[in-house]
Amino acid sequence: MPPLGLLHMRAWASLFNRLLRPSGVVCIREVHFHSQGQMSLQVSEAVLTSQLKPQHEKSNFIIKTPKGTRDLSPQQMVVREKILDLVIGCFKRHGAKRLDTPAFELKEMLTEKYGEDSGLIYDLKDQGGELLSLRYDLTVPFARYLAMNKVKKMKRYHVGKVWRRESPTIVQGRYREFCQCDFDIAGQFDPMIPDAECLKIMCEILSGLQLGDFLIKVNDRRILDGMLAVCGVPESKFHAICSSIDKLDKISWNDVRHEMVARKGLAPEVADRIGDYIQCHGGVSLVEEMFQDSILSQNKQAIEGLGDLKLLFEYLTLFGIAEKISFDLSLARGLDYYTGVIYEAVLLQTPAQAEESLNVGSVAAGGRYDGLVGMFDPKGHKVPCVGFSIGVERIFAIVEQRMKTSGQKIRTTETQVFVATPQKNFLHERLKLISELWDAGIKAELLYKNNPKLLTQLHYCEHMGIPLAVIIGEQELKEGVIKLRSVASREEVAIKRENLVAEIQKRLSES
Amino acid sequence: MPPLGLLHMRAWASLFNRLLRPSGVVCIREVHFHSQGQMSLQVSEAVLTSQLKPQHEKSNFIIKTPKGTRDLSPQQMVVREKILDLVIGCFKRHGAKRLDTPAFELKEMLTEKYGEDSGLIYDLKDQGGELLSLRYDLTVPFARYLAMNKVKKMKRYHVGKVWRRESPTIVQGRYREFCQCDFDIAGQFDPMIPDAECLKIMCEILSGLQLGDFLIKVNDRRILDGMLAVCGVPESKFHAICSSIDKLDKISWNDVRHEMVARKGLAPEVADRIGDYIQCHGGVSLVEEMFQDSILSQNKQAIEGLGDLKLLFEYLTLFGIAEKISFDLSLARGLDYYTGVIYEAVLLQTPAQAEESLNVGSVAAGGRYDGLVGMFDPKGHKVPCVGFSIGVERIFAIVEQRMKTSGQKIRTTETQVFVATPQKNFLHERLKLISELWDAGIKAELLYKNNPKLLTQLHYCEHMGIPLAVIIGEQELKEGVIKLRSVASREEVAIKRENLVAEIQKRLSES
């Protein structure tokens, strides 16, 4: 076996161990070659025998969800649906279409899109066939969709789960599985009109959710790059320095400066020049000021970015949201694919005392990425895109916390009418009655018991917040009536059976 | 190596191939043992060298979604949302709460739940940490949730994706990623009341979706087992024979009989006895008939099952759906975990000619599984459950096909008003105007161009099915009015600017 024999024995052992790892066997110590294509492996007997044991031996395992994930209870689902309805309602108000993509993509679709974060991608096991990964965000699948279907223009939203193998710090609301709501506008248009609409939508959603005061920081990748260039940062270090700047909302400028100088090799005076710029934030007047900046204005890229920001502020003023937007030179979004304006929405106050423990940080962010679609296109055809993603998990956490604090009770069902009886052996009548209600579109429940006690049935209504109860007994059956009870007031009236549905619908429409 | 040496050489080769399969290497032909714990493998050189090539070589890759998966276009999403709204509306009408669980579970949670189908589970790559698998259905995660949270009683629904590594025969609407809608009732109740409600809900949904006539086949695991026992099938072959019976809707009785005799070793007269039973189907009268069957009535299990079915039919009659239900002794659902009544809904007619190519088979199925929760509970505490799953993908396919055939145009946006101008340099006025509409909750769009042509704008409205257009030009600005245009009739009226929102809302509420 000449070509194989070229490998050193230890290399062979290592190769076999690598191949065997998916099956859990990593036990080969030595490999020897014999004549006639034979090969011998020095194996560890103990490990191999353990493989032969039936895997069905169920040790006392712990029932849990995977690390960093969780079930969502009916209470949580009610809060989520309310929030998502508002978010989706806003996307639809702006004419967006809905899209859905598979939970996993070909692994190669996700490579070289996320920079340092690529290590957080979940891969699927190679079970024969394609190499797959769970999606990491909804932006890359959107770009893949556009390139694959040669779509040149699209306004779409996407609500779905994404997965990241982050070290979960669950207290801060970070999970390995979480929901994102994305809105993006793809297509070649006149400058900054779609960008301004994205910011308008973010404002509408954050106002609508009543999360308290908020601010959207805006910057531009070209201004950032231009600023680094004029400060004297070599281009090769742009990414590393950006990721240091990105930490400014978590650590102080002194610590960021130290990182830049000590760990990333920047000259102290270069770091100080950056420091002067990135402490600047303000409205459109700061854009004007930067235009006048004798150093920055020498950079062509920066001037382009500033020109676009000026136009953006013009449109934001027409939309009546300019005072919510802050041009902030310290904003440096981490993802590789941004090419122009970038933005990030932050809540300015924790709305109530009990929520102070919630470190929510940014609740929505996005920007312009004109090159991503081209990365998928065989001929590199570009489709300019701008959009944003709402970190709804953080918003869910705030709203849940607020409800807990206020002691507000959340109904997890929508049942309108409960079918009860004071009598024994009345199951058949109850079933006939509830069937009539269901067929009339009324949300109704009964207890799955042949002979439940009346008190148990009425308690159930009160406990579940069901507004109405209909009560049927022998007397009512004889008279052709049903008792309709308001659960809250405990008032009861007799209603002719044939008028019951109409009366219930009337009561429900009034409440 | 005495314990290992006990295995035959060929068994060793087979074991190694099995272990190596996940890495794609299945090339070991012979294994020989040597002294001192050495072992030699006869390998295929070609296959091993192919493993050594770097996998990072990105050839000119094809942009696609993973095998068996697909993107859902805005058109498809509209159809889906309509169907899901109806399904969820029905679940809510019956008092169900919504639950959500992670897309993946600990691998061990899914083992021994799906019988032969376990091989279709997607595993995640071991990237350090827990061994995970994508969920295969929504039933097992529900049972895990109940056991984990010690919930003894719950009526819940769950709409979500599940993943199965099936060989995709996409023509028949089978995908590796697909959506399921599950409804289940957990808890100890009086017999057959929740079971009857499940069948009622299935009927409501299938009627509501207007898919044409349908039938729900019902059987009981205990009747099935009892029938096999009295026919002379040894208990060890129950599973194998059930899976043969399960094929009756795809292949003829003769072929099933042949499989039972030739492949599964049943005596021909035993197979014939089974054949006599499983051709029986009918209403409640068949239940009575089986009670009288001198042979079947000797089996205690079968009598229990028949007693429950009799009660079930009583309740179904009260619900007015008995004629939709057929007691069918050939129904034998494949999954391991069913313990009592089982059912499956089938469409009786392909609703239109063009849909004949769609082989939809069953569109909903379920049953009682009283032991599944106990499999997760350390002490084996049982929580009886009954429920069903709607195969919504098949329903989506039918409705999509029907819409295609009818040539019905689907609006993928909900935009109500388009903001247009006949004038150049009117972007600022358009932006101010659309902002007013958005803030009033009106769904509105404009073109992202500084100077679009009026004709282009009006064409866009017609193309997208937007009912109203508001037109602003210099004349209107001067007079403080806006032109409101009905896109369909092309009628235009001038409206005072301050009355515009009210007038639009009036028009929209009328249509």
Describe the structure.
Two copies of one chain form a homodimer. Chain A is 40% helix and 18% strand. Chain A is elongated, with a radius of gyration of 31 Å. Chain A has helices at 2-5, 9-20, 45-52, 74-93, 107-110, 139-148, 193-208, 221-231, 238-245, 253-263, 268-278, 284-292, 300-318, 372-376, 392-406, 427-439, 454-464, 474-479, 500-510; strands at 28-33, 38-43, 97-98, 104-106, 132-134, 154-163, 177-186, 214-220, 281-282, 325-328, 341-347, 362-368, 385-390, 417-420, 444-445, 468-471, 481-486, 492-496. In chain A, a hairpin with a 5-residue loop joins strand 17 (481-486) and strand 18 (492-496). The first copy, chain A, has a nine-stranded mixed β-sheet with strand order 3-6-7-13-12-11-8-10-9. By secondary structure, the first copy, chain A, is α+β, with helices and mostly antiparallel strands. The relative contact order of chain A is 0.09. Chain A has 19 helices and 18 strands. Chain A folds into two domains: 74-406, Bira Bifunctional Protein, Domain 2 (BirA Bifunctional Protein, domain 2, 2-Layer Sandwich); 417-510, Rossmann fold (3-Layer(aba) Sandwich). The interface between A and B is large, with 119 and 119 residues.
For the structure shown, list the relevant keywords:
homodimer, 511 residues, alpha+beta, BirA Bifunctional Protein, domain 2, Rossmann fold, 2 domains, nine-stranded mixed β-sheet, five-stranded mixed β-sheet, 18 strands, 40% helix, elongated, histidine-tRNA ligase activity (chains A, B), RNA binding (chains A, B), histidine--tRNA ligase (chains A, B)
